[in-house]
TrEMBL record:
This is EAL domain-containing protein. It comes from Fluctibacter corallii. Residues 1-249 form the EAL domain. It comes from the Bacteria.
Amino acid sequence: IEMLEDLHDAIEQDSFYFCYQPKVDFEGNLCGAEALIRWKHPVKGEVSPVEFIPIAEETGLIVPLGHNMFKKFCKVVKQVEDKQRGILMSYNLSGRQFLDPSLLDVLMGCIKEAGVSADSIELEITESTLMNDIESAVQVLKELTKHGFKVSIDDFGTGYSSLAYLKKLPIHTLKIDKSFVDDLLNDADDIAIISAITNMANALGLTTVAEGVEVEQQAEKLHELEIDMFQGYCFYKPLEESAFLALLK
Ligand code: G
Ligand code: G
Ligand code: MN
Ligand code: NA
């Protein structure tokens, strides 16, 4: 309850901002970045999105909050587009946002206002959100991709993807969950799972990203397993906006 009141106040006072965590190829070249929301609470300090996103989601506050944050995100996308071509900027959509009937209008309104292209934007949607209502998901994804947005399945491997549907979904990227990366160097099962995912992704023409890459040996093994892109503390932690923009050529 306390958290809920705080959330209302914070939305009114606009106390949220984004950090940006880069994604790189095996050579370490910058390919893109994911916006990760941050909240600096006046008393508690930094509150993790793991704590407040679920509450915002349950109460529906995520919809106005998401709208406001997507506007901020687009202003950064504009600066990225102006500085360096070919950088893909990722934005997380929760279940409630994904199924909100006004989603497409909101996204289109924001990109027009900022003067950015939908091609520069990737929407990260968790596997469980997509598989929760697959028929609706297919319809929403068709609309989003028709307008040029790219789509990544976040936390891939932790939900229950219907493999038959993966073929039908208009998606671009599979983002392999950190849990498969964590123990990769000690667990042959994780290697087998990642290998199966990259084989399938290659066959379906999808890009693969591994998240939570913390050490170089993990990156080397993942590269061997034909993962295309890497995200994790081994390369970059989530960066303040200005530090991220300073990476651009
Ligand atoms: O950066 P961090 O590890 O604290 O993020 C924790 C979780 O919060 C991640 O799973 C991430 O997907 C989610 N998250 C971060 N930013 C956003 C956001 O802007 N919108 C939504 N819906 N989820 C986010
Ligand atoms: O949206 P998603 O669930 O992919 O969010 C990724 C989360 O993981 C973010 O909260 C981010 O801060 C965190 N993260 C990113 N890289 C690493 C890493 O290398 N190690 C750990 N432990 N967490 C990471
Ligand atoms: Mn994500
Ligand atoms: Na994830």
